[in-house]
Design brief:
Length: about 950
């Protein structure tokens, strides 16, 4: 239960229980709080039951959270609200179809029906696989469409076109297009003409008008292009000055597109049929069928409409979702809540104009839906706007600063847009303090610079944040969130932080199938499919520490290690894909968020049986290739900084935000983009290239019309600016912006003076670990009584290399290794021990564990002995391998270990003068074997010399040994 009272505007919204309301709820204005209070207030009214209120949220998690909050604010229990329609659009449509919509496809002229066993196919990679199968059948059956397929880079891009059309409410029927869908495909010439005129407006020069942006952009029109013969020459196109002739607006827009429309129609319609035949629906089809059902079945629509409809995050709705909300509303009790400045889901077909032009769209959609029958029965011209203006999160300095982000240029061609300020509802802070630091910094090594800044901030009063008691306190790691536009940078930062033992919680999308866990699982699945799979063996053998040459020999002779073959047998008996995955992860000691996420994805994608292992392998390969991302919450717990993408941070708040990687090609990100057949407002369905036989040869020609059209379309970087706005408004107290050596215009145009940071990160933590020390001693009787042996290694580097696993753990692994090497019957009890066992299994020479080593050297006039214990000697006819086990998770103590192994090296060289001697560290945590290049004896002596000198009190001659 919240213990604060709603402010006046919030109360106004809570009390506004009838009529149409559009709520401009700026960042941090308590939108979720207010909606749940409003919902609870509706329930207080005698005649209103939970079933009468449809509350639409953006994600399933948001729906669940909303329910909890409602329960906290009203007399209903969770069980009473369990089936209440608090849902996402997709979820609600799915329920509607399963309950009342089996025949919905018939309204499009599709013979197949939805059944109770029709599955929702959520995984895009799996769907793309199905789509490829569909296209290859389609291509066989439709030679007339081959020229369109030829221009595509990737056939699956047509799936994107289908999703986009479906999000706009454009659906095919057996004999054409549903309702007015075709008009959208044709585009809207008047709307285009406006864009054309804006782009073609002459610019102001010092000596009169200069050429329009459009005329300028069309210079080099023919350069590097191959147009069909009907294209104008550049001189013809640009023969006017300062603008190009208006006739080119018509000539570019006016294009014969019947064949293109027929192609897209057939693909779209037949794919719907294919999906139903294969008994699945995707998210787009759920909404499509729910929409046609609600449009066509009037009695049903009326029976499923609600007295109240509320939509949260309205800025992220698509056009079909706006229309669905209207069809589901039985009365004008419609309330939409959102913030256009936080609309960041354009790539999922969100249309920001749903909220920016709410009233206009509402009228248009009602007219459209009612064109042949009354479907929206309530009046829509009385719309009340409510603005939530009090912000409960950030300081006033941050709120004021956040406004800049919406006018920043995102590319070098754009300019700062000052007019945007007029569209922004000012927010008022409610914080008691305003000590905000708003800073920018750059560095050639951005990750290190960020970590340097993090270390400067933690514990620093200048970056004080508000504690729970409302008082300012120095920040700790968990107060800091690093937000990034792209996932890649966040993951890179995470791995840098690990090297320094800086705790990081990563939240967001991960290319799950590129992780070590997935690669090992895939290798074992390949081996299950094919006992001789080279790709499978190469991965698992390398992981077990075999050298490339050894792997080659094993593969040539098919002499696979017996322990691996028996593990393969165990896997073969597992009954589910989850079971296989768990066995593999246990073998390698993966007990982490990535392993859990993989099991969840595989189990969710494939039903529980393992009969279709081939399909699982293909799925994993395709997911890897497609860089498919899945949400992973990789949180070490405790006092960690958070690293998130901006999308993942939406709706959250952090005391200190570092907005990172504001670099060229990263923010805005480069690449991607639609394929050569695309739908774009307001020009409709277009192709950027044609396959044709002109100039006497078949070729993929550039479409000159599209080239002109595209120069008039707005390049939509507005969403990038909004992403920046979302990131800044997550911050409560301080915001820092960071870039590397090539900052993006979004960074360069910030009204801040960036500082250059020289990276200087310190490894965190100071716990000693179990790592063995090399003892240096002066032989008896020279040791002065009571003095302890001296270590050659610098203890400071061992600080937390094993991230707190401790001496006991290290000793346990070493004990196990000794016993296993000596042939005792011991079972590995953790992944480190499993790595050791596998490693020892892979060796074919004599194993000698825990060998003492003594190296006498002369330091100055003094005879000194350095002693230590060699964990393992592996002796073969021509080689002796020295192996030292390390339980470290980090790697930064390696230079100190080199000293230790160098000593062993010289001892072993003397003992085996005819053999080649190798020295290696074996990191038990991941089974990595790292060869070490030993120091010479003189270098070792130098080290002891230096240590002696450091240990001498001034003027004292006698060597003192610490
Ligand atoms: N009337 C109020 N008095 C005090 N605190 C409030 C009030 N209303 C909301 N809050 C607090 O304000 C913070 C922001 O609320 P909430 O997360 O609901 O905002 P939001 O509008 O959803 O934000 P955003 O859109 O930026 O994600 C929360 O910590 C919430 O508890």
């Amino acid at each position: 239960m919240t213990d604060f009272e709603p402010n006046d505007k919030q109360q106004e919204l809570i009390d506004a229980t009838s009529g149409i309301h559009v709520v401009d709820a700026g960042a941090g204005t308590g939108k979720t709080f207010t909606i749940t209070r409003r919902y609870a207030n509706l329930l207080q009214q005698d005649e209103t039951e939970p079933d009468d209120i449809l509350l639409i949220t953006f994600t399933n998690n948001a729906a669940a959270e909303m329910k909890e909050r409602v329960v906290a604010n009203c007399d209903y229990s969770m069980s009473a609200l369990r089936d209440a329609p608090i849902n996402t659009f997709h979820g609600h449509c799915h329920e509607l179809l399963l309950r009342d919509g089996f025949s919905a496809p018939t309204h499009l002229g599709v013979d197949d029906r939805i059944t109770s066993s029709t599955r929702l196919l959520e995984n895009e990679v799996v769907e793309e696989d199905r789509f490829r199968e569909f296209i290859s059948q389609f291509a066989d059956e439709h030679p007339e469409h081959h020229d369109f397929l030829r221009v595509l880079r990737e056939n699956t891009s047509l799936l994107e076109v289908i999703r986009e059309l479906a999000a706009k409410g454009i659906f095919p029927t057996s004999d054409g297009w549903y309702r007015n869908g075709e008009s959208y495909l044709d585009g809207d010439f008047e709307a285009f003409e406006e864009l054309f005129e804006t782009a073609n407006e002459p610019n102001e020069g010092a000596n009169g008008p200069t050429q329009s942006d459009l005329r300028d952009d069309l210079s080099g029109f023919e350069r590097d292009r191959c147009f069909l013969p009907d294209a104008p020459a550049e001189s013809e196109l640009r023969d006017n000055y300062p603008s190009i002739d208006h006739e080119w607006a018509d000539r570019a827009f006016d294009e014969e597109r019947d064949a293109l429309k027929a192609f897209v129609h057939d693909i779209y319609f037949e794919y719907i049929e294919f999906a139903l035949r294969q008994n699945y629906l995707n998210f787009s089809f759920l909404q499509m069928f729910a929409f046609v059902l609600l449009c066509e079945d009037h009695a049903l629509r009326e029976s499923v409409q609600f007295d109240h409809v509320m939509v949260d995050e309205f800025q992220d709705t698509s056009e079909i979702q706006f229309k669905l909300a209207l069809l589901l509303a039985g009365t004008d009790n419609l309330c939409v809540v959102g913030d256009w400045k936080q609309s960041i889901y354009g790539f999922q077909y969100a249309s920001v104009d749903n909220i920016r032009q709410f009233e206009e769209r509402l009228g248009n959609y009602k007219r459209e839906l009612n064109s042949d029958s009354e479907r929206v029965a309530f009046p829509v011209d009385d719309v009340t706007g409510i603005k939530l203006e009090k912000n409960y999160r950030s300081t006033q300095s941050i709120l004021n600063f956040s406004r800049h982000s919406l006018g920043l240029p995102a590319t070098s061609n754009e300019e700062v847009d000052l007019d945007i300020e007029d569209d922004i509802t000012p927010l008022t802070a409610t914080t008691d303090h305003d000590n905000s630091n708003i800073e920018a910094f750059t560095s050639d090594d951005e990750c290190e610079a960020i970590l340097t800044r993090v270390q400067e901030i933690v514990g620093n009063r200048e970056y004080a944040v508000e504690g729970e008691d409302g008082e300012l306190r120095p920040p700790s790691h968990e107060d800091i969130a690093v937000l990034t536009r792209t996932r890649r940078f966040g993951r890179e930062l995470q791995s840098h932080a690990r090297e320094y033992n800086i705790p990081v919680a990563y939240e967001g999308g991960v290319e799950l199938f590129g992780t070590e866990q997935a690669i090992l699982l895939l290798a074992w699945l390949r081996l299950l499919e094919d006992r001789h799979s080279k790709r499978g063996w190469a991965v698992v053998l390398e992981e077990a520490g075999y050298t490339l040459d050894e792997v080659k020999t094993i593969l040539e002779n098919e002499s696979y290690p017996s322990n691996m073959l028996s593990f393969r047998e165990r896997l073969a008996s597992a009954e589910t894909v989850g079971g296989i995955a768990r066995l593999v992860f246990d073998r390698y000691g993966f007990e982490d968020a990535y392993a859990d996420a993989l099991v969840a994805v595989l189990q969710g994608t494939f039903d529980s049986t393992t009969h279709n292992r081939g399909a699982i392998v293909r799925f994993m390969e395709q997911s890897l290739e497609a860089d498919a991302t899945h949400d992973v919450d990789d949180n070490p717990g405790g006092d960690s900084i958070t690293v998130q993408t901006i999308h993942a941070a939406k709706g959250l708040e952090h005391p200190i935000v570092i907005l990172a990687n504001i670099n060229q090609y990263s923010f805005p990100p480069s690449g991607g983009g639609a394929d050569r057949i695309r739908y774009e407002d307001p020009v409709g369905l277009r192709q950027t290239k044609h396959y044709a036989d002109a100039h006497g040869r078949p070729h993929i020609y550039d479409n000159w019309r599209y080239r002109i059209l595209s120069k008039c379309l707005n390049r939509d970087y507005d969403e990038e600016r909004r992403l920046m706005y979302v990131a800044i408004t997550r911050a409560e107290s301080h915001v820092l912006f960071s870039a590397g050596s090539s900052p993006s215009p979004l960074f360069e145009n910030l009204p801040l003076e960036p500082e250059t940071v020289e990276p200087d990160v310190e490894a965190a933590g100071t716990t000693r670990t179990e790592q063995s020390r090399l003892q240096v001693s002066v032989p008896v009787p020279d040791i002065p009584a009571g003095q302890s042996p001296h270590s050659l290694m610098d203890d400071r580097v061992f600080s937390d290399v094993d991230e707190g696993r401790g001496i006991e753990f290290g000793n346990q692994v070493h004990d196990f290794a000794e016993q296993y090497a000596e042939g005792a019957v011991v079972e590995p009890s953790n992944k480190d021990e499993r790595h050791v066992a596998e490693f020892l299994d892979s060796l074919d020479g004599e194993l000698r564990a825990e060998e003492n080593a003594y190296l006498p050297v002369t330091v100055g006039e003094q005879q000194v002995t350095i002693s230590g214990i060699i964990d393992l000697l592996h002796v073969t006819a021509e080689r002796v391998d020295i192996v030292d086990y390390k339980t470290d998770l980090g790697r930064h103590a390696e230079s100190e270990y080199r000293k230790q192994l160098s000593v062993y090296y010289h001892v072993v060289r003397a003992a085996f003068p005819d053999s080649r001697v190798t020295t290696a560290l074996f990191y038990t945590a991941d089974g990595d074997r790292i060869e070490i290049d030993p120091l010479s004896k003189d270098e070792i002596v130098d080290l002891i010399d230096r240590d002696y000198a450091e240990a001498q009190p001034d003027g004292e001659e006698e060597p003192i040994i610490r």
